[in-house]
Amino acid sequence: MTHAMRVVLVGYGPVGARFVEEMLPAVAAGRISLVVLGAEAEDAYNRVLLAEYAVGATDRARLEIADTAAARAAGVRIRLAETAVAIDRERRLVRTAAGEEVAYDRLVLATGARANVPTLAGLEGSRPVRGAAPGHDGHGAPLPAGVLALRDLADAEAVAPVVAGGGSIVVLGAGVLGMEFALLAAEHGARVTVVHHGPAPMARNLDEGGGRMLGRAAQRAGLRMAAHSRAEAVEFRETPAGPVFGGILCADGTYTRGDLLVLSCGVAPRVELARGAGLACATGVLVDAALRTWTDPDVFAIGDCAQIADPGSADATGRVAGAPSGLIGPGWRQAAAVAAGLHAEAEGAAAGPDASVALHERPTAVMLKAKGIDVVSGGDYAAEPWSADAEVSVWVDPARGSYLKTVVRDGALAGFVSVGLPQAGAELTLRYERGGALLTDPAALLRLDAPDAAAAPAEDPLGPDATVCWCNGVTAGRIAEAVHDGCGTVEEVGRCTRAGTGCGGCRGRIAALLAAAPVA
Hints:
Shape: globular
Number of strands: 29
Helix content: 25-40%
Low-confidence stretches: 130-139
Mean pLDDT: 88
Structural class: alpha/beta
Strand order of the largest sheet: 3-2-1-7-21
Distance between the termini: 54 Å
CATH superfamily of the largest domain: FAD/NAD(P)-binding domain
Largest sheet: 5 strands, parallel
């Protein structure tokens, strides 16, 4: 290549921002020319923390995740409020909604995911994505007034006055994000009802016993849990400004009034741009272990839109199993991998990331971020106590709000659920991440959270090699080094190591390490 490699990035969310950060040395050195097309008018921000921002638990500054000014100073051309609407792979051009064409040698898609809108009467034809070209990312009109999906800053700013005024919020869906928002909103003064299918919340992350225990804890925290509820229609009340959400009607005839409806019905990868360009897609954009699309080696995909699968793995019907991870940590690691590969290619080395890099990551533990409610699960926890192929142990203590389940296969911890037992949950998370064995006496886990906890875990959950920040892969040892070098607050540790800048679930563990650090 006789000129600087022309790289175009479509999408400037958290994963796109990390890609830009990783590309800066090559851009500054003149080896790579980078153009970024971001549909939103704002600089990249951390969507994972939108719920905290919406209820007033954190400020706008903590959502900042990109130094756009520094990137522009290094030579990156970041074009905000500019939506990519088509890709011409033959001519290697990206066309924008304004009709401009941007040339590329390598194209990176970081288009993320959009919120699912359920098929309910009253929401026909609605879409939750702002800033998309008409007909490009979800057909139809925007969501009605008083209905939102909490996917962007405008959504968060619409929630704020309802929470501040002690208003009534209906949350449709009880996944991890829906429950985190519901608990936060209730903690900050809102009256919250969670409407969901099935007997218990977080059905995709907890077994029924763990979910029921979480449901009890949520009720004690002030939530109204409407289980076994199948929503059928959204109804509106008339105001001088027009129709506004008034309530939700369920199949059993129950009607729940509210000032605001928050949809938490999952997300779908935004693959419309890729599919329109003829790129192979399943649930997400299909990429190989090097994150190159199956269809075109000059096009990559990362983050919530990227589905990693072996080319040719489709079954007889053409279906490809799997889906994007949906987590910020893997997305950041994918961004770094593609950036490293493009660095090497620009310097004349072998093209693309090293395909031997294990991008088929072991599923990470899922933790509910909620004050006073400790919930974490990981792996394959579905086995029952009488399963022939696993050793399964279950402890239930409804009076104390505690639930623990462990699944061991071939001597290693294969899965677990922990509710109301923070120390046991931390120990199990550590063992699961390392593929380690369970304690010789599994009942010893319960003693870790006893008021007079004399038993110590076999391994220290905050030992030097323990992963504290799962999003960024930061160990306790690395944080200790940062503290030794002068970091004295969680924010300073984050700036130095990136720990705590993703989902924020590790900030308590970072604070514990700071508190335990020896005084200089």
